[in-house]
Amino acid sequence: MSELRDKVILITGGTAGIGLECVKAYIKAGAKVVFVGLDHSSVEEAKALFGNPHLGLQADVSNDADVKIIIQKTVDTFGRLDAIHNNAGLASPSKPLHLTEDDEWENLINVNLRSLLYTTRHGYSYLKESKGCILNTSSLVGEIGQDNHAAYSATKGAVNALTKSMAIDYAKDGIRVNSVLPAAVMTPMLKNWVSEQPDPEITEGFLNDIHLLGYCPEGDVIADACVFLLSDKARFITGVNMPVSGGAELGYRRGG
Q1: Could you tell me which of 206, 91, 201, 96 has the C-alpha nearest to residue 147?
Q2: Are 3 and 233 in contact (CB under 8 A)?
Q3: What is d(CA 47, CA 24) in angstroms, rounded to the nearest whole number?
Q4: CA-CA distance, 110 to 61, in Å (whole number)?
Q5: Tens digits of per-residue pLDDT, 35-68?
Q6: Burial class (CB in 10 A: 0-12, 13-18, 19+), 236
């Protein structure tokens, strides 16, 4: 695979779950990857896994100063920036809106939405120079909603709208902007969400059944779509919120 040969890609939330699978896929496709994680241990583990020439950085993507630093370190190291993949995200809490605490609301807004402001603010000039891409990891719930997940759904709905507005604004600069919309993916974050449900076993079965293709996937299926969207094969695709969902948005359930 060489779809991303010599592309420099910065991915937030790149040390676990979907992000980690994307890093693997980007490297396999020939990219130089800067993967960003919140905690030191996960970054170090990923650095040991991937090695040179790839770069692992610790940062809080909800902090403007941190984001400015990781963008600058990327350009200082590789001399360019071809893509930003905004993948960092929070999924908790799992509750309706009236039970959501102020700090829970703020945390979701800061990580899932405000971080896109910062990566775009500090990465825009470099992406304009490379005629690069922005890719956002959103969620199908931003389109169709989800019970007991109001604040999270709200942030992903905002990401979907923002993706389209960014695509309009930056098309003149040759920058494409898209998002991927998983339904459910068996990541550590999702497993934690399942554990918060009243009956985790029933919830896990539900997560399999909502996908028309009959199973809840691993993160590699999302990563494959992300490789495509960041590659020249998707050179005429922008402003798209692409479901990678096994048909879950059609609302069917598998028969027994």
Answers
A1: 96
A2: yes
A3: 12
A4: 8
A5: 999 999 999 999 999 999 999 999 999 999 999 9
A6: exposed
Confidence band of 256 (pLDDT split at 50, 70, 90): very low
* Ordered domains of the chain (ranges, CATH): 8-184+218-247 (3.40.50.720)
Mutual orientation of helices 17-28 and 40-50 as an angle, nearest 10°? 20
Structure tokens at 135: 């890719």
Half-sphere exposure of 101 (CA within 13 A, CB side): 5
Is 170 among the residues known to form the active site?
Answer: no
Beta strand pairing status for 83-86 and 55-58? unpaired
Distance CA 138, CA 158 (A): 9
Distance CA 229, CA 223 (A): 10
Would the pTM count as exceeding 0.85?
yes
Catalytic residue (choose from 26, 124, 126, 152): 152
